[in-house]
Each structure stands twice: as C-alpha cells, then as structure tokens.
Amino acid sequence: MRRAGLLLMALGLVCLTAAGSLAVRNQAEEARAGAAGTRALAVMEKALSTPDETEAMIGEQVWLGRLTIPSLELELPILSEWSYENLKTAPCHYCGSAGDGDLVLLAHNYRTHFGPIRRLKPGDPVIFEDMAGTVYAYLVTAVEIVDADALEDVTSGAHDLTLITCTYGGKKRVAVFCDAEKSS
After folding, report:
1. Out of 40, 42, 126, 156, which residue is the most buried by the measure of CB atoms under 10 Å away?
2. What would the DSSP string read from start to end of 95-147?
3. How far apart are the C-alpha atoms of 179 and 139, rounded to whole Å?
C-alpha cells in the first residue's frame, strides 16, 4: 500500500511539473506573439494606404491589414495567410475578403490576440483596414460558442466578418459574427 501511495504521489508531481511547464511555454508564446504584433503594427503604419495594394510584404511575411476592436482596446495586424506557425505571430486571414463581404479571421486565444473576443456584445464596432487604406466598419451581431469541428458552418459567408478563436482548453470555438455597418 505504501509503495502505491508513493507511486501516486510521484505521478502527481510529474503531472504538476508538466502542467507548469506547459503554462510557462504558453505564456512565453503569448508574450512573443504580442511583441511581434506590436512590431508589425509599427512598421505597418508606413505601408498602409498603398493604393491598389490589398496586401504588403513587411519583413518576411505578407500582411493583409489591421483589425481594431475599440471596446476591447485591441489593434491587431492581420497576416494574409493562415498556418499554425503564423497563428503564433498574429491573427490570420482564413478565407473570404472584406471587399466581397465574407472575411474570416482566425487567431489564438492569447490575451493579446482573440482571447478577449468572447466579451464582445451585439452592437460593438469592429474595424478592418486593408493595406490599400480601405476601411470596413462592422457591428457585432452575435457571439457563439460552437463545436471545434463546425468551422465550415461558421465560415459559410453568411456574415460580412467572422472572428474565430479557441475556447480555453481548445475543445470548442468562439465565433463572433459581424455585419457591415450601414451608413446613414
């Protein structure tokens, strides 16, 4: 019995150590991502408003534009192509386009990326500016928690802008649906 208890304690210690290491790694990734986004925004300011250019090469990456969510005090550069590696740097374009009214953006749930989007409420403004300087204004219409495998359902183009991130633990997704703000 005593040996089994010691083995369970050792196993518990190993699990706690692994969880702590994972948490430290995730925090380091989030810090790197936040710093990369800040650097990209600073350089992006010079590249924005390039007529007829909806994307721009900055450093070794191609950027689509800038997303601003005033109620969350977020201003984020958007990479033009999604990949798991790119998601570690900044939110990414998944599919669609702002001009066609079916833009879908993905990001990790880092605090410095899309982690806070679950707090958005219908009516909150969201602004996307492409590299040509064209500004697209949206209003949040819904925030939903969806199954992880429902990506095709939430990227159907039914909304002008969709923001997607994982829930904590990654078992589900947070989808924020936005429609173009109607000009008066």
Report:
1. 126
2. E--TTTT-EEEE----TTTTGGGGG--TT-EEEEEETT--EEEEEEEEEEEEE
3. 6
Amino acid at 106: L
Q: Are the beta carbons of 65 and 53 closer than 8 angstroms?
A: no
Both tokens of residue 184? 């008066």
Domain count, the chain: 1
CA 184 to chain centre: 30
CATH code of residue 23: 2.40.260.10
pLDDT (tens digit per residue) in 44-103 = 665 565 556 677 677 788 889 999 999 999 999 999 999 999 998 899 999 999 999 999
| Contact (CB, 8 A) for 59 and 37 | no
Residue with tokens 């998944």: 94
